[in-house]
Amino acid sequence: MKKAVAVISVIFLALSAQPAQAAAKVKVLNASKVSTKTGLVTITVSGLPKEHGIYVSQCMGIEKGTTVPSACNPAKASKLWVSNVAADLKMGAKPATAKLTIKVDKYFKDGDCVHTKCIIYVTNDHNATDKTAFQAIPFKFGGINLF
Fold first, then answer.
1. Three-state secondary structure string covering the chain
2. pLDDT, tens digit, for every residue of 73-132?
3. Would you tell me how many other CB atoms lie within 10 Å of the CB of residue 16?
4. Of 48, 57, 122, the residue nearest 89 (C-alpha)
5. Which of 18, 34, 124, 142 has the fewest Cβ atoms surrounding its Cβ within 10 A?
6. Comparing C-alpha atoms, which of 121, 147, 125 is closest to residue 135?
7. Which among 31, 22, 8 has a CA at the least distance from the CA of 54?
8. How far apart are CA 49 and CA 67, in angstroms?
9. Residue burial 48-87, b: 16+ Cβ < 10 Å; e: rest
10. In this model, does residue 22 exceed pLDDT 70?
11. What is the maximum span of the chain, computed from C-alpha positions, in angstroms?
12. 13: how many CB neighbours lie within 10 A of its CB?
């Protein structure tokens, strides 16, 4: 009887376990030389999960010992929601196949991307069960790297 309960428990756990959500691959095409005039950053996304999308933002670099940036640019042009979920697209998300750009600023509220390190910060969107996955992609203006 104990073996039967153990086997049923293992089967139940195997069936109820959710598979890990694959992280989308985000690439910033001009990360080493963002124009100081336009501030436009071109992004490509591949491997976007079918169940959810991602958020992309300009933020300050992540300090050692922390997992989130201390500040992100509040400007709407410096944020992007990318998803292939039909309901998300109806609410304003951009499909992964679209031309994806965001405008990054040299300075923003609580942010200085000229004298300190800034990143393109990518997180799973509100539909994802895994909120811990993120990517931090460094960028620099005009090819100048002060760090």
1. CHHHHHHHHHHHHHHHCCCCCCCCEEEECCCCCECCCCCEEEEEEECCCCCCCEEEEEEECCCCCCCCCCCECCCHHHEEEECCCHHHHHCCCECCCCCEEEECCCEECCEECCCCCEEEEEEECCCCCCCCCEEEEEECECCCCCC
2. 999 999 999 999 999 999 999 999 999 999 999 999 999 998 999 999 999 999 998 877
3. 7
4. 48
5. 18
6. 121
7. 22
8. 22
9. bbeebbbbbbbbbbbeeeeeebeebbeeeebbbbbbbbee
10. no
11. 73
12. 9
**Structural tokens at position 140:** 């620099």
CA dist 14 and 33 (Å) reads: 48
Model's pTM, two decimal places?
A: 0.80
The amino acid sitting at 27 is K
Average pLDDT over residues 23-31: 90
Half-sphere exposure of 22 (CA within 13 A, CB side): 9
CA 84 distance to own-chain centroid: 15
